[in-house]
Design a protein that fits this description.
The protein contains two helices and five strands, in the order H-E-E-E-H-E-E. It is α+β, with helices and mostly antiparallel strands. The radius of gyration is 13 Å and the shape is globular. The model has no long low-confidence stretch (mean pLDDT about 90).
């Protein structure tokens, strides 16, 4: 399925990359909800967390390790950050490609979540 994220992975839509390897891409959100707002996506198409299989679990673990690394590199690991995954339309997931929002750099207060309108 072609999505805005598949186009970013292909390079047809530019992004400000924070991290990239063979399996994962992380880039700054174009409409940040906080001073630090990075999207972390697998390059493998997985529509949502509901579609993750047992064979995808090492990839999910790697995404979390990458999130830790990015938080450290961007200076929010110690002060705190959120790692948010929206799953399904009622959660705010508008892009049908598994992704995480890493958000920090400010006191986030009562922020409940982030919709994909920020993606």
């Amino acid at each position: 399925m072609e999505t805005v994220f598949s186009k970013i992975i292909e390079g047809t839509i530019p992004s400000k990359k924070v991290f990239e390897n063979e399996r994962i891409l992380a880039f700054h959100d174009i409409q940040p909800a906080a001073p630090v707002h990075v999207l972390i996506i697998p390059k493998k198409f997985i529509a949502s967390m509901n579609d993750v299989t047992a064979e995808d679990l090492p990839l999910i673990a790697e995404i979390h390790a990458v999130a830790q690394q990015i938080a450290l590199e961007l200076g929010v690991a110690e002060t705190g950050y959120r790692l948010i995954n929206n799953c399904g339309p009622d959660s705010g997931q508008a892009v049908p490609h598994l992704h995480y929002h890493l958000i920090g750099g400010a006191k986030l207060g009562a922020l409940v979540g982030i919709s994909d309108s920020h993606a």
